[in-house]
Specification:
It holds the Pfam family CheD. By secondary structure, the protein is α+β, with helices and mostly antiparallel strands. It has a single domain, classed as 60s Ribosomal Protein L30, Chain: A. It contains 3 helices and 9 strands; from the N terminus they run αβββββαβαβββ. A 5-stranded mixed sheet has the order 2-5-4-6-7, covered by helices on one side. The longest helix is centred in the middle third of the chain and has 16 residues, at 113-128.
Length: 183
């Protein structure tokens, strides 16, 4: 469902979910996503006016997994997929510019997955010779990204960080009871 402002502008909003990559040259398309520790890379060819966005959950599969099997949730697959989709629409790799978003470490008590995701995106783009024009990575806040692929315009909004302390474990209320059923 389109929001009122998007619908009134005649735009088609495409939500980019985890494990997806979309590219377009249509000026009426807006790509959007919500990120926590995930990373979204927005690529843009300013001459062809083609852009695209991906959304990956983890950088690379663990070394125990075969590299011959691709999993759409990993950045390794989604970065290649995004570049190839854009080339298929007529973009030139030598003209691509990148903007990287996300990579938050929402819970400081957990491993810094967001930091690893951001570092992977940087490394991949550097290896491919794609310059990073802008980045908004890290921190503890979630982000909502809106990207107009035909113009390269991006709007990033951050969610407020809850002020409740994260170091207190949740305690089960005394009145709660029940069994756990495993399946």
């Amino acid at each position: 469902m389109l929001s009122a402002s998007v619908a009134s502008a005649g735009l088609e909003r495409v939500t980019v979910m985890q494990g997806e990559a979309h590219a377009s040259a249509d000026p009426k398309v807006e790509l959007s996503t919500v990120l926590g520790s995930c990373v979204a890379t927005c690529l843009y060819d300013p001459v062809a006016r083609i852009g695209g966005m991906n959304h990956f959950l983890l950088a690379e599969p663990p070394s125990t997994r075969s590299r011959e099997t691709f999993d759409e949730h990993y950045g390794l697959f989604l970065m290649e997929l995004l570049v190839n989709k854009m080339l298929g629409l007529g973009a030139f790799k030598s003209r691509l510019k990148a903007r990287i978003y996300g990579g938050a470490n929402l819970n400081p008590a957990m491993s810094p997955i967001g930091t690893a995701n951001g570092a992977f995106a940087h490394k991949f783009l550097q290896n491919e010779g794609i310059p990073v024009a802008f980045e908004d990575l890290g921190g503890r806040a979630a982000r909502r990204i809106h990207f107009m692929p035909a113009s390269g315009m991006v709007r990033c909004r951050t969610a407020p960080i809850e002020s409740a302390p994260m170091d207190k474990p949740l305690v089960r209320p005394q009145s709660a009871s029940g069994d756990v059923e495993l399946f």
